[in-house]
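Subject: for your reference before the review

Hello V.,

The reviewers asked for a structural picture of the protein, and I figured it would be easier to keep everything in one thread rather than splitting it across files. Below is the amino acid sequence we used in the manuscript, unchanged from the supplementary table.
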Amino acid sequence: MTSSNERAADRAYRMIRADIMSGELEGGARLGEANLAERYGLSRTPVRESLRRLQSEGLVEVLPHRGARVVDWRSLDIAAIYDMRAVVEGFMVRRAAVTMSDEEIDRLTTLCDKVERQTAAMELGDPELIDLLAAFNREFHGSIARAAGGEIFAAVRASVVIGPLMLRTVHDYTRADQERSNRHHREILAAFRARSPQWAESVMLAHVYSAKSRLLEGRGEVIGPDAASIEAS
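And here is what came back from the structure prediction:
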């Protein structure tokens, strides 16, 4: 592929992804290459490349004989997915609290410093900010999983983190949401320094359930009394 085609593919990816995240391209919407090429003023080749990339992120699905369409995150059982994630990440963070090295804690602290400086200077909803936060979360939480049990644990965690939901969460973040998330990351590291599995787990559960609440709110749902009592138990 030539450099000009690479730039066009990257531009197509950014524009289609932005329209998916904003809801301009709704869940379940068909993504015909010809229609998208016309919509964005591009040829079909970069559109095709961008759809492959979006498929790898879990934002687009390709159905046999039916073409590509936007993954409908609203059809997913968000509550169940995040309840399962809380169990997995709660277990891993307890182990990491006593196994993560001081050097790795220092590295993640420096990473938090860098990300907080960058996010403070960027506009909410900026595609680069979404990418930055998504990459940071993969690294931060992946490092916890690896400290808990190596690459096998990292793969287990990745299997319960649904790409479209994670991206939707950071896309919908308010400044207050972002600041709360930053505090959670900092407090998890403080719990690691104290070698306190219980403290680390309590913060991780708050972190996961706050993301769950944000997604349910975005879908027009709330956590009712019965669900809330289950989470508190």
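For the response letter, the relevant points are probably these. The longest strand covers residues 60-63. The longest helix spans residues 127-160.

Happy to draft the paragraph if you're swamped.

O.
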